[in-house]
Design a protein that fits this description.
This protein has eleven helices and no strands. The relative contact order is 0.09. Helix 1 crosses helix 4, helix 4 crosses helix 7 and helix 8 runs antiparallel to helix 9. It is mostly helical and about 220 residues long. The protein is elongated, with a radius of gyration of 26 Å. Helix content is about 65%, strand content about 0%.
Length: about 220
C-alpha cells in the first residue's frame, strides 16, 4: 500500500494510528477506530498490516526515523563514521508524539514478548549491525586491535546515549554521540604514539643534575 497513489493512504493510516495510540493508549486503540479516523477501509488496512502490532511497529519506525535501513558510512575516518551513526537523530516533527508514546510502547513490549522481540530486531539491530560493520572495517584496516571485544565496544559506544536519554539533566552539553565516538577512538586506536620511556638520566633529580655539571 506504500507505492504510487497509495502512498498517501499509507501515510494517513500511520498518522491516524499515531494520534490514537498517543491519545487512547495502545490496548484501547482498535483497528476500527484507525480506519474511521484515517478514512481508509479496514479491509485495506488489514491487507497491509495483518494485525495491530505490525501497524504499531511501523508507527514506531516512522517516528524514530527508522522506516528505512540506515545507510552505511565510509568517509575514510573511522572516528567520524562512528560519530555519524551515533549522532543520527529521529525526525524533529515527531518529538512530542515520540516522547508521549515511548513509555507506553516499552510497557507494551514487556507484556507482549513477541512484539518486544520484533521491536529489538527492527529498531535496535540495524544501528548495531552498522556499528559492527564500521568496527570490523577498522580492524581490517589495522586501525583497531584484532582482539577488540565487539559487544564490549558496542556497550561503550551506545551506553552514553542511553544514559543521556535516561538522565538528560545530568548530561553535559554537546553532541553525546560524537563525544562517545571520540572517547572510544582515543582509547582503542592503534596509531597512538606509545608513551616514551623516561631515561635514567631524565629521572635524575635536579640536585644530582647540577652536581653532574663539570665546573670550569
Amino acid at each position: 500500500m506504500a507505492r504510487g497513489r497509495s502512498r498517501e493512504a499509507h501515510e494517513r493510516v500511520l498518522r491516524a494510528a499515531l494520534d490514537l495510540f498517543g491519545e487512547r493508549g495502545i490496548d484501547a486503540t482498535s483497528m476500527d477506530a484507525i480506519a474511521q479516523i484515517s478514512g481508509i477501509s479496514k479491509a485495506t488496512i488489514y491487507n497491509h498490516w495483518a494485525n495491530k502490532e505490525l501497524l504499531l511497529l511501523d508507527v514506531m519506525l516512522m517516528v524514530n526515523g527508522l522506516d528505512r535501513d540506515p545507510e552505511d558510512v565510509d568517509s575514510g575516518d573511522l572516528c567520524r563514521d562512528l560519530a555519524t551513526v551515533l549522532s543520527r537523530r529521529p525526525p524533529d516533527e515527531f518529538d512530542a508524539a515520540r516522547d508521549r508514546l515511548m513509555p507506553a510502547m516499552m510497557a507494551y513490549s514487556a507484556f507482549h514478548r513477541e512484539f518486544g522481540q520484533a521491536w529489538r530486531r527492527r529498531v535496535m539491530e540495524p544501528p548495531r549491525a552498522l556499528l559492527k560493520r564500521i568496527l570490523r572495517r577498522g580492524i581490517e584496516r589495522k586501525l583497531l586491535p584484532e582482539t577488540l571485544d565487539m559487544e564490549g565496544a558496542l556497550a561503550l559506544l551506545l551506553g552514553p546515549l542511553i544514559y543521556a536519554k535516561v538522565f538528560p539533566e545530568g548530561t553535559a552539553a554537546g553532541d553525546t554521540g560524537t563525544k562517545a565516538a571520540e572517547s572510544f577512538w582515543r582509547a582503542h586506536r592503534l596509531d597512538q604514539a606509545s608513551p616514551k620511556r623516561v631515561s635514567k638520566q631524565a629521572r635524575r633529580s635536579p640536585v644530582n643534575s647540577r652536581q653532574s655539571i663539570r665546573r670550569p
